[in-house]
């Protein structure tokens, strides 16, 4: 198991990942950092956990829109799958935000 240091909104996070996934995880973190900084510029520093939650909800919305436009032939079934995925992501984000607030 590899370890990688990720910088998001001026804070460093040490994360474990599968060997060989370090560069991919770093690129994902850079994207999240960019979205968090854009959000902070528009709404201000409203607290780290809230900023991370808001940025991740925006990213989840981007994913939802991309999936919706990618496979319009799937119809309602695709919408249901996307909604289920978003619910899972929202649940994970809520748990992460709760852990961040506790620290």
Description:
The chain has helices at residues 22-43, 48-70, 75-102; strands at residues 2-8, 11-17. A hairpin with a 2-residue loop joins β1 and β2. It starts with a strand and ends with a helix. α1 (22-43) packs across α2 (48-70) and α2 packs antiparallel against α3 (75-102). It contains three helices and two strands; from the N terminus they run ββααα. Helices cover 71% and strands 14% of the residues. It has one domain (2-102). It has a two-stranded antiparallel ribbon. The relative contact order is 0.11. It has 103 residues and is of the alpha+beta class. This is Cell division protein ZapA. One of its GO terms (cellular component) is cell septum.
Brief summary of the model shown:
The protein is α+β, with helices and mostly antiparallel strands.
Question: Which key terms come to mind for this protein?
Answer:
71% helix
